[in-house]
């Protein structure tokens, strides 16, 4: 441990099926609760009466040429997410567990929307069998479990929830700052083992100390506010200039941050540039007796260098929530150094160190985060199913059009997902040429392009012909018409 020293110093829409089915479904609604509002209006930006007025004007769009929307939710998706989908009148089936590939292939055949968490593998083989599938919701942070390219090639959008747990991570970080400064976990472990060890040497208040935040995004900026609330002085380093929360100050270089901060906390994404961004050279530049917290990604810190910095008492403590290699499930992982293939037996090294808080990637693991993930992903699914909006999709270009209103009764929204090849727009516009195209937006991502157009003066009997003419284009991946 370092010698003590004085460390001074932020819907409702509808479903498809036969046209008659849509009509009867809508007859029960008094107001449209289009998620446009809930998505684009920050809380408090509109009065309730304004919101209700807008809701009344927003037109519910109906997916065309699919059966009633069937939703399959696996892996115990949070109740908040289930309720949003059920409120739409979709047929929602929930399962507590994941399904194996063969079971999934059988089950997914007539499903339009699937919701999964991290265990279900949506492979190219599964997606090939998913003939009715239009959208996937990953009720989690990562999307590695989905073959994103295969999904895009089948015209299936994928949504996740990367930022719903930002607050949870920020709060954990605050807790760790205090615990490290007070050697709290060591004192607790000692007493669990029967040892009364009342010490004040090397224990500090955090008030007045400098917190250095590396990566000032969703988590870093939340943390900044919380830390200032506790009387800390906040500096941050980011690759882009970012407006400070409160009175925090951005520094120009990582080195400057390392040399000034009493606590360094990492909140950067996993990128080639952030791999081992904290290694021997960076530890050398940190203040003697300072602290390091890594709640970002396991690749960001060079673990052997961290072990050295702890053993030489360069650091007075550290908190690590993420590791270069992590197990898929709960168990005896840190007892089995052979599992750390090619990385050395760093689990033993880490476990031997004092004032080192080790947690099993729980930064974002709270009830609130799970609930927020449910809301965010289900809302994105509803917006995609009902309005065709791809904002937030991880495998499709992000396209959005403002909602149609009740004053536009003969309008239809055409969605044409197609191969990104020359000449498509001309052919689509030929198909649409008997109608006025009120607005149109198209964008591409790799081999797939997404076109949305709102057309007027559409009589209902014409919709099926429009759909068929688009389906007949050779570039077509998937056609949807909402009306
Ligand atoms: N421990 C957990 O359970 C948990 C939970 C959620 C997120 N995370 C991780 O936390 C990290 C931050 O998440 P976030 O939601 O705040 O991300 P974010 O994308 O909102 O913010 C990341 C910030 O890092 C900056 N950045 C990128 N490269 C940088 C570099 N080389 N140097 C300095 N800054 C750089 C970006 O400009 C951005 O401002 C991610 O790695 C994420 O995977 C961990």
From TrEMBL:
- Domain (ACT): give its ranges: 413-483
BP terms from Gene Ontology: L-serine biosynthetic process
EC number, as in UniProt: 1.1.1.399, 1.1.1.95
Q: In which pathway does it act?
A: Amino-acid biosynthesis; L-serine biosynthesis; L-serine from 3-phospho-D-glycerate: step 1/3
**Catalysed reactions, as listed in the record:** (R)-2-hydroxyglutarate + NAD(+) = 2-oxoglutarate + NADH + H(+); (2R)-3-phosphoglycerate + NAD(+) = 3-phosphooxypyruvate + NADH + H(+)
What are the protein's UniProt keywords?
Amino-acid biosynthesis, NAD, Oxidoreductase, Phosphoprotein, Serine biosynthesis
Q: Which InterPro entries match?
A: ACT-like_dom_sf, ACT_dom, D-2-hydroxyacid_DH, D-isomer_2_OHA_DH_cat_dom, D-isomer_DH_CS, D-isomer_DH_CS1, D-isomer_DH_NAD-bd, NAD(P)-bd_dom_sf
GO terms (molecular function) for this protein are: 2-oxoglutarate reductase activity; NAD binding; phosphoglycerate dehydrogenase activity
The reply to whether Phosphoprotein figures as a keyword in the UniProt entry is: yes
Keyword match Amino-acid biosynthesis:
yes
Q: What does this protein do?
A: Catalyzes the reversible oxidation of 3-phospho-D-glycerate to 3-phosphonooxypyruvate, the first step of the phosphorylated L-serine biosynthesis pathway. Also catalyzes the reversible oxidation of 2-hydroxyglutarate to 2-oxoglutarate.
> What family is reported?
Belongs to the D-isomer specific 2-hydroxyacid dehydrogenase family.
Protein name, as recorded: 2-oxoglutarate reductase
Taxonomic lineage of this organism? Eukaryota, Fungi, Dikarya, Ascomycota, Pezizomycotina
């Amino acid at each position: 441990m370092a010698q003590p020293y004085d460390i001074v110093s932020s819907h409702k829409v509808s479903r498809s099926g036969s046209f008659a089915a849509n009509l009867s479904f809508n007859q029960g609604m008094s107001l449209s609760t289009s998620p446009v509002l809930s998505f684009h209006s920050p809380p408090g930006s509109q009065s309730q009466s304004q919101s209700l007025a807008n809701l009344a004007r927003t037109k519910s769009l109906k997916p065309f040429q699919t059966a009633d929307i069937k939703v399959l939710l696996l892996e115990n998706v949070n109740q908040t997410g289930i309720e949003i989908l059920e409120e739409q009148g979709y047929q929602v089936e929930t399962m507590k567990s994941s399904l194996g590939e063969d079971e999934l292939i059988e089950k997914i055949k007539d499903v339009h929307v699937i919701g999964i968490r991290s265990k279900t593998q949506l492979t190219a083989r599964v997606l090939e069998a998913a003939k009715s599938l239009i959208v996937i919701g990953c009720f989690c942070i990562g999307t590695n479990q989905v073959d994103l390219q295969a999904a895009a090639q089948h015209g299936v959008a994928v949504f996740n929830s990367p930022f719903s747990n930002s607050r949870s991570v920020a709060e954990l970080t605050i807790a760790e700052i205090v615990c490290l400064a007070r050697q709290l976990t060591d004192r607790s472990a000692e007493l669990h083992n029967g040892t009364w060890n009342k010490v004040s040497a090397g224990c500090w208040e955090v008030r007045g100390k400098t917190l250095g935040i590396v990566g000032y995004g969703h988590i870093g900026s939340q943390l900044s506010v919380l830390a200032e609330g506790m009387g800390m002085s906040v500096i941050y380093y980011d690759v882009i200039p970012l407006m400070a929360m409160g009175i925090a100050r951005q520094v120009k270089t990582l080195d400057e941050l390392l040399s000034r901060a009493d606590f360094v906390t990492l909140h950067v994404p996993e990128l080639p540039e952030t791999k081992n961004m904290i290694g021997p050279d960076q530890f050398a530049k940190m203040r003697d007796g300072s602290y390091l917290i890594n709640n970002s990604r396991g690749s960001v810190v060079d673990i052997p260098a961290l072990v050295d910095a702890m053993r030489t008492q360069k650091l007075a403590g550290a908190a690590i929530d993420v590791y270069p290699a992590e197990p898929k499930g709960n168990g005896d992982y840190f007892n089995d150094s052979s599992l750390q293939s090619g990385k050395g037996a760093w689990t033993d090294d880490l476990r031997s160190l004092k004032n080192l808080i080790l947690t099993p990637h729980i930064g974002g693991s709270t009830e609130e985060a799970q609930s927020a993930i449910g809301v965010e992903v289900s809302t994105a699914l509803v917006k995609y199913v009902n309005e065709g909006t791809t904002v937030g999709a991880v495998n499709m270009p992000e396209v959005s059009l403002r909602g149609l209103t009740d004053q536009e009764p003969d309008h239809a929204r055409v969605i044409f997902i197609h191969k990104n090849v020359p000449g498509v727009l001309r052919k689509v516009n030929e198909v649409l040429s008997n109608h006025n195209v009120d607005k149109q937006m198209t964008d591409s991502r790799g081999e797939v392009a997404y076109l949305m157009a709102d057309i007027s003066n559409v009589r209902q009997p014409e919709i099926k012909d429009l759909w068929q003419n688009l389906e007949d284009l050779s570039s077509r991946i998937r056609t949807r018409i909402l009306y």
